[in-house]
Amino acid sequence: MSTDNTSLKLEKVMQDAEDFLPILGTDFVELYVGNAKQAAYYYQHAWGFQPVAYSGLETGRKDSVSYVLQQGKIRIVLTSPLQPEGDINAHINKHGDGVKMVALWVDDARKSYEETTKRGAKSYVAPYEMEDEHGKAVISGIHTYGETIHLFVERKDYEGPFLPGYKTYATKVQAEDTGLKYIDHMVGNVGWNEMNKWVDFYAKVMGFAQMVSFDDKDISTDYTALMSKVMSNGNGRIKFPINEPAEGKKKSQIEEYIDFYNGAGVQHIALATDNIIETVTQLRDRGVEFLYVPETYYDTLLDRVGKIDEDLEPLKELGVLVDRDDEGYLLQIFTKPVLDRPTMFFEIIQRKGAQSFGKGNFKALFEAIEREQDLRGTLQ
Ligand code: TYF
Ligand code: FE
Q1: Are 244 and 226 in contact (CB under 8 A)?
Q2: Nearest residue CA, atom 4 of ligand 1?
Q3: Structure pTM?
Q4: Which residues are in the VOC domain (predicted)?
């Protein structure tokens, strides 16, 4: 018995020793946008995020403004500049609206910074303390692909609405939530032949491991291609697929993204629900636009994935895709880009055992994306 205990403990010690960057979860995703007030309205009323916190002129912040919204465990921050100069303006000028910060919730923001920078991470901001009447938080940050940042957020001594300096924010009219629960994964698009460089970054600098791999043969249609690898942290809560463009007859959707975003950046955020039919019905009724999937996809669906709990009709009506792996199945659907530039979009995903990413749907999905590219004239 004692031997068992010892080996169990040893295993635990080894795991702890290996995970030099324990991450509790995604803390928040911050977008730099041209007009945070209106973006906040969109995410509240179309997506069902609830207002949580605010900082801006009314709280004594002079140069920029942030709205914090939440649904389930998903927290998004929308930030706009109030002055003509500075980093936020430069970011928006170059990229349009887009994700700047992928903030990770940690127990120790100082150690997270030390462990990653000593392994080669480029510093964005050294650990600093923020404090107000609700307590203290510690923040640090490193650069990842493009101009995207990973912040480390330590909030164990803070009990306010978001972070020190923010006040509670409420609106008179609040939309109902749409059943979104947590961020399942966040995908980065990087430039030609850069995928492995960023895979190595997540492995060496952040201690992540590769989850699944598929080469360009797996992800090409008759026209376009891309490559992708999925990196995951020690406890599996953080999953970051990385895509790079690949050569095809026509322009890869990843290249289109890079062209319009002017570099690498966050391509899609996958949000989990436990009832995809209800969530997508709500989102669609509120004006969120999803990619169109031809009805023929559903002709052979059940032959491919076997028996599923859901009725086929609503899935077909909404355009929800289904895929199975050896652990179970998943349902997923993709929005059109949520910006004027064909850059960022969202995925809604419901997992029923499957821990993969919908490999069986890539062909149907990429053909749907190609039809959109064609309408934009960006498929050539
Ligand atoms: O995250 C994934 O891997 C899936 C599929 O450009 C996918 O959602 C992969 C690449 C891409 C769009 C979707
Ligand atoms: Fe995805």
Answers
A1: yes
A2: 357
A3: 0.94
A4: 25-155, 182-336
